[in-house]
Amino acid sequence: MEIVIAGPGEVVIRFIDSKGETLVRETLVVSGSPSVEGRRTIDLSVGTTSGQRPLAPVLVRQSHPKQRVTFDSETPSASHRGAVKRSVARARSRRTRQADGSRPPDRVMRRCT
User: Whole-model pTM?
Assistant: First the structure.
């Protein structure tokens, strides 16, 4: 896939798997005149111990509102970004709970007396 950034500034792109977990995060910076354009080619899969995992790009942050960012000549959808952010937040919350051994409040069991 080719990422094109038209205009100066910084963008953050996360590449997530089907579970919403971020496997790759890239910060790309383009410097110069307003007509400058940066290009980055990246494979949309990553090798893990369990095999190849497909990835989906998600534009997380854009430092300049006039920048144009495209993924394979298509503009990232704002609604897609929002849905993926929620998915990533859920995955992050799940990892935090697993790390400290706590359970979410709705799953706390109480002793009946």
Answer: 0.65
